[in-house]
Write a structure and sequence with these properties.
There is one protein chain. Helix 4 runs antiparallel to helix 6 and helix 6 runs antiparallel to helix 9. Helix content is 35%, strand content 15%. The chain has two domains: 90 residues, Phosphorylase Kinase, domain 1 (2-Layer Sandwich); 179 residues, Transferase(Phosphotransferase), domain 1 (Orthogonal Bundle). With 280 residues, it is an alpha+beta fold. It is built from ten helices and eight strands.
Length: 280
């Protein structure tokens, strides 16, 4: 990539259809992420649609930016598409992803820092839904990056769909199982909607606060822990695991993890909840 003005630092991820690469601008010294996709492979799979939706979200985010949503870099920093590949250039965030921060215990527990992170995630998802008009469909700590100061940004929009889009039953396997909403798991979902993102965000909050996952399956018959949460007994699970978090945090996550998406609390409620209020 030297002839483009970028120098490769390292390949971060190798994928079936292309690579995710960390590069440095030879002129400015700034770092970027370049995602490449093989045109031939894209045209032989459903990944072409995923690429188009991801590009659409990132482009919309650049036109309507938000501090908690990743966007395409400016046009002058984009690589020209070639006969073989097409590319997306995005800023590089030095804080790494949220999962790494949780594992390293840099972000963990019920404290002001974690509340700020959770608030930032909720505000980013709110912007995605209400301004960019997309559902993410794969909210998880792996899909949140952090700035050097610990500000979270929603990223990785491969599974994203415009709100209201028909939901194909085969998309049951989209997203990560531990974070998957019950309506997706049980093939009850009909349209791309915000409620499923709220559920996945609730599991993400739980991971941030405890370093654990609340259950393996969103099914009361397969997982007794899920049954406990649905019965309003999350506090009992936490006591068994010797994890202490505030009643307000438990209250918020319980409402976010309600099995019925029509009864699940929405983002307006979440952002006004006492646990996220007065976070500066």
């Amino acid at each position: 990539m030297k002839h483009t003005g970028f120098e490769i630092v390292r390949v971060i991820q190798r994928k079936l259809h292309g690579d995710v690469t960390l590069v440095k601008c030879a002129h400015s010294g700034s770092s970027y992420i370049i995602k490449s996709e093989s045109k031939d492979l894209l045209h032989t799979s459903n990944s072409s649609t995923e690429y188009n939706h991801e590009f659409a979200v990132l482009h919309r985010s650049r036109c309507d930016p938000h501090p908690n949503v990743v966007a395409l870099s400016k046009e002058s920093e984009q690589l020209k598409w070639c006969p073989v590949n097409r590319y997306m250039t995005m800023p590089y965030y030095k804080g790494g992803d949220l999962l790494e921060a949780i594992k390293a215990k840099h972000i963990l527990g019920d404290n002001l820092q974690t509340r700020k992170v959770c608030q930032g995630i909720a505000e980013g998802v709110y912007h995605l839904h209400n301004n960019l008009l997309y559902a993410h469909n794969d909210i998880s700590p792996e899909n949140v990056v952090l700035t050097a100061l610990g500000v979270p940004l929603i990223c990785d929009f491969e599974q994203s769909l415009p709100l209201g889009t028909f939901w194909k039953p085969e998309r049951r396997f989209s997203g990560k199982l531990n974070y998957q909403a019950p309506e997706v798991f049980h093939c009850r979902k009909k349209y791309s909607c915000s409620a499923s993102d709220v559920y996945s965000m609730g599991v993400t909050f739980f991971a941030i606060l405890t370093g654990l996952l609340p259950f393996d399956y969103p099914d009361v018959k397969l997982d007794k822990r899920y049954m406990h949460v649905q019965n309003g007994r999350m506090d009992e699970l936490l006591r068994m695991w010797d994890v202490k978090i505030s009643k307000d945090a438990i209250d918020l996550m319980t409402y976010m993890l309600i099995d019925d998406p029509l009864q699940r609390k929405d983002l307006d409620y979440i952002l006004k909840h006492p646990w996220l209020q007065h976070v500066q």
